[in-house]
Design brief:
6-stranded parallel beta sheet; alpha/beta; TIM Barrel; globular
Length: 265
């Protein structure tokens, strides 16, 4: 089966290890990789991943521009990469609009936001500037859920999904890292404007809970992701393949859904 890794953080070589280690400290978790493009390509070849959705997170306004330049350079150099830009809620609306227009022209397909790292509540006004501009243009890959913060709570996201009909969000980590008992709340979203990815979830929530959530929402709602450089792709694939899914459901989650969603071959 084709495999499309829909959740991949990457960094320039000179800062990759430092950035990866910073993620590890933030989550108090071991980092399995260095975050470099070279290492990612090696892992892809080893396990048979054909495409990746790459992105990074800006913790300051200044980082937005350098990150977006880096991501756009990598999708030009590597045809197997699809890129998402980043934005920061402290940017002015005019800055956001200009950067979105530029990144669309560069071929970037969406936006990556991380409320916990960027320290904003999903439903606060400074974040809604972003939603108003990207709705109907670019989807947002949103980090969701955390045991330590309320920035990325499911209730806050649902309020925004209901307010902005044309806003489409990929709710990372099976809809909310460590908040999987609350995932049923997504049924209160008025519109069909959300998907989920499997990253940083299957090794924590257990097979039975993963099966239940996928069956509840349907395999068509899910994208496979490893959260590189956090976890090893072969281990994430092994966990995924142990789920009680049909071959057709696996094919959808591993590649078909994300390719259809992004309208790419």
């Amino acid at each position: 089966m084709e495999i499309f890794n829909a959740h991949v953080h990457v960094y320039p070589d000179k800062i990759a290890l430092k950035a990866a280690q910073s993620i590890g400290r933030f989550y108090n978790a071991p980092i399995r990789h260095t975050g470099t493009i070279k290492e990612l390509l090696e892992e892809n070849k080893k396990v048979g991943i054909s495409k990746c959705l790459i992105h990074s997170v800006a913790t300051t306004i200044h980082q937005v521009y350098s990150i977006n330049e880096f991501i756009s350079s990598q999708i030009k150099e590597h045809s197997e990469f699809v890129g998402f830009m980043t934005l920061h809620p402290d940017m002015e609306e005019e800055e956001i609009q200009k950067e979105v227009d530029k990144c669309i022209a560069l071929g970037l397909k969406g936006v990556k936001l991380h409320p916990d790292c960027q320290k904003f509540y999903i439903d606060e006004e400074r974040a809604q500037k972003i939603y108003r501009i990207v709705a109907g243009k670019l989807p947002i890959l949103m980090h969701m859920g955390d045991p330590s913060y309320d920035y990325s709570s499911i209730v806050r996201l649902i309020a925004m999904l209901n307010k902005y009909k044309d806003l489409h969000v990929i709710a990372a980590h099976m809809g909310g890292y460590t908040r999987w008992g609350e995932v049923g709340l997504y049924h209160s979203a008025k519109y069909d404007n959300y998907h989920f990815d499997t990253s940083s979830s299957l090794g924590f929530m257990g097979k039975d809970q993963a099966n239940l959530i996928i069956k509840e929402f349907g395999a068509e709602k899910f994208f496979f992701g490893t959260d590189y450089p956090m976890w090893k792709a072969d281990e994430e694939l092994e966990r995924f393949n142990k789920l009680d899914l049909t071959d057709n459901e696996k094919e959808l989650i591993l590649a078909k859904n994300i390719k259809n969603f992004l309208n790419i071959d």
